[in-house]
Amino acid sequence: MSSPAVTLRAGLPDRYLTPEDLVELFSLESKETVYAWRRKRIGPPGFRVGKHLRFDPAAVRAWVTQQGALEDTARAARGRGGAGRSSRRPREAGRTP
For residue 44, is pLDDT > 90? Predict the structure, then answer.
């Protein structure tokens, strides 16, 4: 059986990744982290095969790429002096909108 890292680097998957594979790939503490990501909809997209959770290696690769792009965007925004902040003036005390 090939390792998850080899499976991700290859072409079409000979198998889909399990939560345990993601734990190994990303050096996570436990598979509960993978399940928490799924509940919060912040991790790579997965699908169920019966009661088992599986991940397409291509979708995991795309998710990793997306995370890198988001990090680059955040880093660039921090470098521009907080360009992501709101330009609205603070509300005056005692006034309601």
Answer: yes
